Amino acid sequence: MSEESKLTFKEKCKQYLFERWDYILHMFDHEEIKEPLSNAEVELKKIIKECLTSRTKSYRYVLPTQLLSKSVDHSLNCTSLQVGHESPGSFDARTIAHYVIVPFDNDNHDVLGGSKEPYVNNPLRCPAVSVIYRDRQRNKGDWDKLIFVLNKVQNQNNESYTRKVFDQILFEIHKLLDSVRVIYPIPSRISLKQTVILLEEFLSERSGGSRLEAIATALFRTISDKFNLFDEVRREKINVADVSSGMVADIECYLNKRIALLVEVKDRSLSLIQLNAKIDSARSKQIKEILFMAQNGIEDSNRSEIETKIAQEFTSGQNIYVTDLSHFAEGILIILGENGRVDFLKKIGLELDSSKSPIKDRKTWAALLRKI
Fold first, then answer.
1. Are residues 81 and 164 in the same domain?
2. Which of 29, 153, 249, 310 could be bridged to 262 by S-S, CB 3.0 to 4.6 A?
3. Alpha carbon of 165 to those of 20, 171, 257: distances in Å?
4. Nearest Cα to 71, choosing from 156, 137, 166, 202?
């Protein structure tokens, strides 16, 4: 028995995907660019691109999943989403989507949208991509486009044609990478003033706290690297609640396997409710040091109560600090020096990427770096 015959279906799909993706990468790398489908398929190519960029994120995974599966096993019905679909060739498409296509998407800058389980979402919780289930769909227009592509391939029922359409899908995905892949042109040197202005420009547009949190995390990681103040700096994505993630705050700085400092990032003012909630969480974990990095400082309506609360907490052993990023960062950026500031800028880009910040935030950061 050959090694290939021992592979499971999902392993064969993974192998075939990597083989065809390598082919597409080679084509673009060597500028030997030729679309897999001919010019006679203009409409089909247009619709494939529209499906891959659908406003319904789950739909973006359908064509890669369904046509990869049929490319590997041509007996499958590529319109089928579930084994329970009453037609010859029905199969469990969800397994291929989640085991093969989702990791591929993650490895390629979440070009399809970064969904973890697209086939679990409501739009694809039906037996097949068919007009029968059109009324279940909110986005009927893009559902019709999926039907068009999959029916065309299934009706042709030609293995060579199926594989060409799949290659065309990968070809379009590669082109889409230009819209999500960001290169950060880090300068070889940068002054303190330039760094402060750069950060202020980046934070001048509201982002729900994601930009501020990325910068703060990068700053604490730079501090950790340069001064060995912490063993580890942890951060959760901005849209994951602290309580659900198991974290006490937005950023946790560890020393000797214990949390030495909590950092709570606010792109607005610090309220009394937020202060009390975080103090309770810190006390429950016996954490004494809390830093609130609030861009607009303390909320005016509760200023006296907040300041009194902070003073009271100090007497009971809790150290609470409130500052904004500019005031906190400036002194540290002086001590870091030129090389440290450059490293800090690199870490901001890494943080934006690793936390999967919105493409707008990443492109804005890259554009600001180019102006230096």
1. yes
2. 249
3. 12, 10, 52
4. 166
